[in-house]
Specification:
This protein has about 240 residues and is mainly α. It is built from 13 helices and no strands. It has two domains: about 170 residues, no CATH class; about 55 residues, no CATH class.
Length: about 240
């Protein structure tokens, strides 16, 4: 039975369908091209198609996947690769902690959250954080599942297609596709500057990034994220405009 919630898709099925609809638009287009670029990168590294598909299927986070391929290409040890990917993907843990209260409900079994937490990546997280807090409780997880599962499926298909792109397109084009996703993610935040922490994080990141790179190239990303993210968090806590997110 629909509630009087400001955003309501009418039913669990309706929420799932809306998640699919939202995913199979710009997010699918951007991530599809991004993973074509990743598939091409794997092909040029000399690995097999099944390596690319396992990476996307299990990891599904472009930065960690690219690090894996680049380290493999220079014959890094398995321990080094695992450590690098772990450090890169540790950003997903706080994202998961923040998102879970917004998609949890009293009827879904706990095992469902353990399973679907593996689908948390930047694009799905951003969409869920924008939409789910405004939905009735029972529609939140279905919306998230409807968004991420089709998107993951498209990424798998695009990885397979991209693996064979180096024989069709110039290397510069296929490698450039990899950078579409971070650009899209930045534009998602630009479209919702009503939350004070978001413009703060982006602006500080743009300023501090080049400066910290000059000081410490190896640690610039971590240092920039730590300072810009901390300041943005403080701003969002003390100057909140919308308590729903």
């Amino acid at each position: 039975m629909p509630s009087n919630h400001p955003d309501n898709f009418g039913s669990i099925k309706g929420a799932y369908k809306q998640g699919c609809k939202d995913a199979l638009a710009i997010p699918a287009l951007i991530l599809g091209f991004t993973y074509m670029g990743f598939g091409a990168l794997v092909s040029e590294t000399g690995l097999e198609i099944w390596h690319a598909l396992i990476s996307t299927g299990i990891n599904w986070a472009v930065p960690g996947q690219i690090a894996t391929m680049e380290l493999y290409a220079i014959d890094a040890s398995l321990l080094v690769i695992a450590a690098a990917v772990g450090l890169i993907n540790c950003r997903l843990m706080p994202m998961t902690i923040v998102l879970m209260p917004h998609i949890r409900n009293k009827t879904s079994p706990r095992i469902a959250y353990y399973f679907f937490s593996n689908f948390i990546a930047v694009t799905g997280w951003a969409a869920a954080m924008k939409q789910c807090p405004r939905l009735p409780e029972e529609q939140r997880l279905p919306y998230f599942v409807g968004f991420v599962v089709p998107l993951w499926s498209i990424c798998m298909l695009s990885t397979c297609i991209g693996f064979y792109l180096p024989d069709v397109l110039p290397a510069e084009v296929t490698m450039g596709l990899v950078f579409l996703n971070p650009v899209y993610f930045m534009l998602v935040f630009l479209a919702d500057f009503s939350q004070p922490g978001r413009p703060t994080a982006l602006i500080l990141g743009a300023i501090l990034g080049p400066l910290t790179f000059l000081l410490t190239p190896d640690w610039s990303l971590l240092v920039t994220g730590l300072f810009a993210g901390t300041i943005a968090f403080i701003v969002s806590e003390y100057f909140p405009k919308d308590k729903t997110i």
